[in-house]
Amino acid sequence: MTEDIGSLNHKFTSLNAADRLKALFEETDEKDVLVTSSFGSTSVVLLHMLSKARPGFPVYFINTGFHFDETIAYRKQLEEQFNLQVIDAGAEERKHRFTSVNETWRYNQDLCCSINKVGPVDELKKNHKVWISGLLRFQNANRQNMQVFEKKQDIIKFHPIIDMTAEEVALYMQIYDLPVHPLVKQGYDSIGCAHCTAKGTGRTGRWMNTSKIECGLHL
Question: pTM of the prediction?
Fold first, then answer.
């Protein structure tokens, strides 16, 4: 992919999300493309599109070791239903063990996220040129101005569904009869690690009673 970010956004923004994904793969060497997923409440939309555009394409699950049991079960369900090739990516065992024994999430959520999320993804990014993720503008203020393509350090971030509204996400899931994360029915709109996620609308249940709104992956 040799075009500048402005040209890419001009060309891709007019396409719908599914067509953006198809076009990306038509213009990019597959070995350069990284796909990550949290298997959260809206992850199924991008994963479904990916399964249609490139069946069996590797999806890296950022396994922090602190996910809800329901998230692990949901990952398995989608993996089987969409025939996904899901690969775990996580921190080095000694580093994760430190955060687990130390209960780092209680007093330094940034450090815990850095070790268990940001670090593993940084390692993956070293071997890729384009990183696909399912961010959505409506999720929080930090994402409201994000474009389909963003340059971040040495990698191009590609957000094919970034401008879908909450209503469009819900409609897409309804049209294709996509499975819903089991915790959504229990009142969780946004789902991360079990220690740092509570019930709530939007992302209000993430890192409650702190000023934190992002894990650090997308800053």
Answer: 0.90
